[in-house]
Amino acid sequence: METQRTSGDRRIEAVVKTLDVLEALWRAEGAGVTAVTERTGLAKSTVHAHLRTLRSKGYVVQEGDEYRLSLRFLSFGEYVKHAEPLYEAAATPSADLSDRTGERVLCSTEQHGLGTIIQARDGNRSVTSDIDVGTPTYLHCSAGGKVMLAHFDDEKVERIVDDWGLPAFTEETITDRETLFEELESIRDAGIAYNRSEYVPGISAIGAPIMDNDETVYGAIAVSGPQHRLENEWDVDELRNQLLSAANTIEVNLMFS
Fold it and tell me: Terminal CA-to-CA distance of the chain, rounded, Å?
């Protein structure tokens, strides 16, 4: 996913380059200077300088010609994870819902206009996915993302679309504002959102919002699985009720956390 777009904000380009190098190493699961250069588009000498600096600070390790992220990032990840109230509040409800449905359950929240997966629980018949805890996602093409957008004010939704656009991932992805806002209105009326093969072909999901009493949006919880199974094997009301029950339990957990 590309670096977040800015609206005239001043950026320190050296920091941006360092972060691009780190992201390249993360996505490649380790790489040499040449591979990082190809992934970032930076000059090889620049990549080499940034990697040397990161190694000197203990943020990357070098094995032969290959660099990878160091274990130092574990402390960052653990801190961020446990500092997010939704992580603990959603843990048991997400696991219970996954056990009951046998499907994959994803709990997410919004930050900087993107969704971030907070909990990912697999059921006994979940499909394989590269979406896991920490994965950033566009909001307009996921059930959890759309149900969050539906409960944001219009100004915030417009700002998110301005920053990130509405890129198409499949033929079913919503790619224009008018259609998106029409669907968000329907989602508010229904209380749930659907993703019907809008991000990955053949994969659908149903999502519900996680909010407090004044309708502040904390995040969303969604059940994901093969489109034919979610749309043909499940009773719509049964799956909706199970999803809303899990969302309500998370809301109560947040209230008393």
Answer: 33
pTM of the model as a whole: 0.85
CA atoms within 13 A on the CB side of 138: 21
**Residues 61 and 147 both lie in one domain:** no
Q: Which domain holds residue 180?
A: 84-255
- Compute the distance between CA of residue 124 and CA of residue 98 in angstroms, rounded to an integer: 8
CA distance linking residue 159 with residue 152, whole number of Å: 11
What pLDDT digit, counting tens, does each position of 10-45 carry? 789 999 999 999 999 998 999 999 999 999 999 999
Looking at 58, 75, 92, the residue that finishes a domain is 75
Residue 90 forms part of a structural domain: yes
Among residues 130, 107, 100, the alpha carbon closest in space to that of 203 is found at: 130
- Find tokens 């997966």 and name the residue: 117
SS3 content of the chain, % helix, strand, coil (to 5): 50, 20, 30
Closest CA to 145 of 124, 125, 160: 160
Residue 1 in any domain: the answer is no
